[in-house]
Specification:
The chain is α+β, with helices and mostly antiparallel strands and 389 residues long. It has 2 domains: 165 residues, no CATH class; 189 residues, no CATH class. It has 12 helices and 13 strands. Strands 1, 2, 3, 4, 5, 6, 7, 8, 11, 12 and 13 form an 11-stranded mixed beta sheet that branches. It has a two-stranded antiparallel sheet with strand order 9-10. A hairpin with a 5-residue loop joins strand 7 and strand 8. Helix 2 packs antiparallel against helix 9 and helix 2 packs across helix 11. It is elongated, with a radius of gyration of 30 Å.
């Protein structure tokens, strides 16, 4: 009853505190989500870029056999991270005549084979099922992860054709989310300098393992970004020789060391851009809300005088301010949660809610509650016993 009256007496400052704290929580989550998304994209490449090797944008004019023969001719290279395109499409698309159209405009109809090492680097966001590296080894049927479709479900079998006489059944073991990002080269990117350049939207109808295509003698050609890692004990001269040989098969060549350097530089610049904004926002909000809490406590001094004259202790009066802060925090958390849900559904901003974001928001809320209680106790303790009379 008394708490309700105290609340009504400072309803304006109460509402302002709620809006300030909720707004701050939303912005903090958006800032952390943005950084989290960027760092999350770098993590799959962290170990890869720390070694020796080279990136090239493989030229379709080159022969895959010549490229593989070149790699087989030396013991200095270690692993090939690449994908191969099999120019086949589902029977449904073939019957519709889509296979005869320009491939540049319909490349989402085709089958993409990731080498096992490339597929193991990064698992895209799935709507359901598993990624191709988690498939059932005892299943003899070709298994693939399909682009999102309302008509597909896990366990379905889709028949693919090359448009002539070749047919192959592919079992659905996973379905990509509509907003999935894949490892590949964005066709609008010409210069690849950092890890972000290796991500693109879903471009193909189904993703399988390139090794499975080779086992079934399905024609598949190297396409797009190719990463070749070298042995750790390779000499500088041997490295230069391999670098020169690789540039004959593709464009935009870049060493993994330079990509690593540019990636770290990019992440550092993003952190230096977002961190000061987030910290400044927190400090301003903390001070504003704390000041409003002190003002609220002083506004209710006359009421607290009556409480103390009736036998209440100062701590009991401070508990009313503590209850006020808890209410502000709870309502702000609910409002920020609702706002983040709406923002996430809009798709205009990246919103990631996991342990990191929840922990940061929880710490902010706890610090606000404790600081408000401490400030209220400080205001009440300054008043001597005679001041209550």
């Amino acid at each position: 009853m008394y708490f309700k009256r105290l609340l009504l007496r400072q309803i304006v400052s109460f509402a302002v505190c709620i809006m300030l704290l909720a707004f701050s929580l939303v912005l903090i989550v958006l800032c952390i989500s943005s950084l989290h998304n960027k760092i999350e994209g770098y993590i799959p490449f962290r170990e890869l870029f720390s070694g020796k090797g080279r990136y090239i944008n493989y030229s379709q004019e080159s022969k895959t056999s010549d490229f593989c023969e070149m790699l087989d001719s030396t013991d200095d290279y270690e692993t090939l991270y690449a994908y191969k395109i099999a120019y086949m499409t589902s029977q449904e698309h073939c019957d519709a005549g889509l296979l005869k159209d320009n491939t540049d405009n319909n490349n989402n109809l085709y089958c993409c084979g990731y080498t096992y090492d490339l597929a193991s680097l990064y698992t895209p966001k799935l709507s359901s099922g598993e990624w191709i590296t988690e498939r059932d080894e005892n299943d003899d049927m070709l298994q693939g992860v399909f682009a999102y479709s309302d008509d597909l479900k896990i366990g379905d079998v889709v028949t693919f054709t090359d448009g002539v006489d070749g047919y192959e059944d592919i079992k659905v073991i996973g379905i990509l989310s509509p907003d999935s990002r894949m490892l590949g080269l964005n066709k609008q990117k010409y210069n690849v300098n950092r890890f972000t350049d290796f991500y693109t939207n879903v471009q193909y109808e189904v993703y399988v393992l390139a090794e499975d295509l080779e086992k079934r003698n399905i024609l598949a050609e190297l396409n797009g970004p190719v990463l070749v890692t070298y042995k750790d004990d390779i000499t500088i001269d041997e490295k230069h020789t391999l670098d020169s040989a690789l540039t004959l098969f593709g464009t935009d060549g870049e060493s993994l060391e330079n990509i690593q350097y540019n990636s770290i530089k990019y992440l550092t610049s993003e952190i230096m851009l977002i961190a000061p904004i987030a910290i400044s926002l927190l400090v301003i909000t903390f001070l504003a809300v704390s000041v409003l809490s002190v003002i609220g406590t002083k506004t209710n001094i006359s009421t607290y005088n009556i409480f103390c004259m009736c036998g209440a202790r100062r701590k009991q009066c401070a508990y009313y301010s503590l209850m006020m802060s808890v209410c502000i925090t709870a309502i702000s958390a609910l409002l920020s949660g609702a706002a983040l849900y709406i923002i996430h559904r809009s798709g205009r901003f990246i919103v990631i809610i996991n342990a990191m974001e929840i922990t940061v928001c929880a710490v902010i809320c706890i610090l606000y509650i404790l600081s408000s209680f401490a400030f209220s106790m400080g205001v009440l303790r300054k008043r001597k016993d005679k001041d209550w009379l």
